[in-house]
Specification:
- This protein has a nine-stranded mixed β-sheet.
- With 375 residues, it is an alpha/beta fold.
- It has nine helices and 17 strands.
- It is globular and about 60 Å long.
- The chain folds into two domains: 150 residues, 3-Layer(aba) Sandwich (Rossmann fold); 189 residues, Dihydrodipicolinate Reductase, domain 2.
- Bound molecules: nicotinamide-adenine-dinucleotide (NAD).
Length: 375
């Protein structure tokens, strides 16, 4: 994709807080989006922030407090661990900055509510990961459903089962604390995708458990250290959607191998096999009721590579140009409430009705593909 020379694109100055594992892809992409200028980054670990600034050509390294106070910065991208999300989001809003945060929006529902309320009060925007549903794979699935290619959706499965991140992440403690676990870590990809494809959720039920009470870190400087597990690591749930479909969802860090698909949507006229919702590409497979074989559906033109940060660019476009904001706070809050409702259902042994709702984000307007200077 080429930069349109001379195109008069409005830009927003953005600062990044949190320069750890996931920051590389944000810094790589956000320094290329045409409507964003990454002007500074900050981390409690200043050496790390300096290294990343040099690697991605970010002009300033600031302390976290300096970044909040920096007048030119209009939006903060929050890439800290989940337990810190609410604190950073609320401070950013206090300082008059829009915020886009990594998932989940917050750990507690109360903090999620506080963030949305503070943003509304201040007239600022909140956005949240994941933005993988803006990739060509899930956009193609959404388009197929909207065109009625599988008739009326009646049911779905969403299955995320694997061994834990202590196998590869150098600092995996947070994955086993409240706000982590497979549900809070990977659930947002699956729930966000289900909501995009089927609409908001009405009620849920689940059973959750901790299968192994300790984990051993397998790589990096902390290799051999033990983590005490303080959050469920296997959850099996059901979801009823406002429009009628029912879904089965499993999230697990307790499974060594599986052959199950990521997400399937079952319609009155056929089935769509949805690609990994933690990625932006395909394949998208579809099988209609009279077809013998699965058919691979050509992807809508668009983002198929790792495009993390698209949600930020889309949000900037919403603020500056009045286009719809897709990876919104409202959506992230609905996902957060669903995850809490799953855990509450397991504790209480009953269905939990959700109080929040959200809109399905409209398909990307492909005219916006000039977001990136070069790709
Ligand atoms: N690693 C991944 O593959 C991945 C993928 C998608 C999303 N995420 C999400 O991204 C977020 C960050 O994950 P990560 O893997 O990069 O974690 P990480 O531990 O590698 O990095 C987090 C960084 O935040 C910094 N930090 C912590 N508290 C801070 C504070 N108060 N102020 C400033 N900086 C602070 C830490 O020093 C660290 O450098 C999490 O919410 C995670 O769920 C991670």
């Amino acid at each position: 994709m080429q930069w349109k020379e001379g195109h008069d694109m409005k830009k927003m100055n953005v600062g990044i807080i949190g320069c750890g594992n996931i920051s590389d892809i944000y810094m790589k992409n956000c320094t290329q989006f045409q409507n964003i200028s990454v002007v500074a980054c900050a981390d409690l670990n200043e050496t790390l922030a300096k290294e990343k600034a040099v690697k991605y050509g970010i002009p300033s390294v600031l302390s976290v407090q300096e970044l909040f106070a920096y007048p030119e910065i209009e939006m903060i991208i929050n890439l800290t661990p989940p337990g810190i999300h609410a604190e950073i989001c609320l401070k950013a809003l206090e300082h008059g900055k829009h915020v886009y945060t990594e998932k989940p929006l917050a750990v507690s529902l109360e903090d999620g509510e506080k963030i949305l309320e503070a943003a509304t009060k201040k007239g600022l925007a909140i956005g949240a990961a994941p933005d993988t549903f803006l990739g060509a794979g899930i956009q193609t699935c959404q388009s197929l459903i909207e065109q009625g290619k599988i008739g009326d959706p009646v049911a779905a499965t969403a299955l995320m089962m694997k061994s834990g991140p202590e196998q590869w992440h150098p600092n995996p403690d947070f994955f086993y604390q409240p706000g982590g676990g497979p549900l809070f870590d990977m659930g947002p990809y699956y729930l966000t995708t289900l909501i995009q494809l089927l609409g908001p959720i009405k009620r849920v039920a689940a059973s959750a458990k901790i299968s192994f009470h300790e984990r051993t870190i397998q790589s990096g400087e902390k290799q051999g250290e033990t983590i005490t597990v303080n959050t469920p690591t296997h959850l099996s749930g059901t979801l009823d959607f406002e429009k009628g479909p029912i879904a089965t969802m499993v999230t697990s860090f307790d499974v060594w191998a599986t052959n199950t698909p990521f997400i399937e949507i079952y319609g009155s006229e056929g089935t769509i096999s949805v690609p990994d919702p933690n990625t932006f590409g395909g394949p998208v497979l579809m099988k209609k009721k009279n077809q013998e074989e699965w058919q691979e559906v050509p992807l809508l033109t668009g983002y198929q590579h790792n495009s993390r940060g698209m949600g930020v660019s889309d949000m900037v476009s919403a603020i500056l140009d009045g286009t719809p904001q897709r990876a919104s706070g409202e959506l992230a809050f609905h996902v957060l409430e669903t995850m809490h409702a799953f855990q509450q259902s397991s504790r209480l042994g009953t269905h939990i009705k959700l109080e929040s709702t959200c809109k399905q984000a409209p398909l990307l307007d492909m005219k916006h593909l000039f977001w990136e200077k070069t790709k």
